[in-house]
Amino acid sequence: MQRTREWYLALGYDNPYEWAHHDDAPFQPLRKPLAASRVAIVTTAAPFQPDKGLQGPGAPYNAAAKFYQVYSGDSAGDPDLRIAHVGIDRRHADMADIGCWFPLKALRDAVRAGRVGRLAPRFHGAPTNRSQRHTVEVDAPEILARCRQDRVDAAILVPNCPVCHQTVSLVARHLEAGGIGTVVIGAAKDIVEHCGVPRFLFNDFPLGNAAGRPGDPRSQAATLELALRLLESAPAARTTLHSPLRWAEDDAWKLDYCNVARTPPEEIARLRADNERAREIARALREAPGVAEN
User: Fold this and answer.
1) Burial of residue 213, with CB atoms counted within 10 A of its CB: 0-12 exposed, 13-18 middle, 19 or more buried
2) What is the pTM of this model?
3) Residues 20-57: pLDDT tens digits?
4) For the segment 69-103, what is each residue's pLDDT rounded down to a tens digit?
5) CB distance 85 to 79 below 8 Å
6) Strands 46-47 and 81-82
7) Could you tell me one molecular function GO term of this UniProt entry (predicted)?
8) CA-to-CA distance for 234 and 238, rounded, in angstroms?
9) Closest among 258, 276, 218 to 89, alpha carbons compared
10) Could you tell me the sign of the dihedral formed by the alpha carbons of 57, 61, 65, 66, in that order?
11) Closest C-alpha to 203, from 259, 174, 165
């Protein structure tokens, strides 16, 4: 939170963002064994939109690819989801391996192995919205309603950027209060714990790759298994489990993301101009009639 606060101050925004904070959190124990439960995924990744510019590996921040309404996808398919629309760690996170941010394959494997009872028929996309009120009053209730339609017993929520972590934390709280057990798999520990969630698996990986290492199905499967164990064993709300996985032997990579001290002034100036353009694009998308409907 401190890093992003300093970053946006450097970009010229002198009104620091106030992150969602709760001292407590709702808690819903699993109502049936995981092997008999139906599990859904909630993601902040966006469906690929070919007409919206670069969204694949190496893509810069792309505000045009954002979505502003909850969407749902077929869990039986192979969705093409991207993370170019949010502020991930573009220097270190992989943007090619969907398993790093959307654990559908790992969850399918867990169902085939009998570890999980059933995969929910749909996964759900949560808009990354800086308006906490909109997330709490509009998006979270919509995701709960869709999960209830699908008779979901538990949900795995995977955020990407800093605000994504707040978004899914607020959604997890709402789902839990509505009777659905949840676990957040994330990389921004302070944001999630500041908001307060029932269960949190902290993977100390670059933002955008919280679900496992790229090109490493074993780490992705291991991350999911830790999340499933937390679903089963957490004794109370606000339980955080630290994954033992490491991104690299050297932790120096952590110093690069949104670090004003490591960014030349001319780069800050360029990013400030880029950010203003992105805000205009996002504003136009929000105001467009029927945008991102599903």
Assistant:
1) buried
2) 0.92
3) 999 999 999 999 999 999 999 999 999 999 999 999 99
4) 999 999 999 999 999 999 999 999 999 999 999 99
5) no
6) antiparallel
7) oxidoreductase activity, acting on X-H and Y-H to form an X-Y bond, with a disulfide as acceptor
8) 9
9) 258
10) positive
11) 165
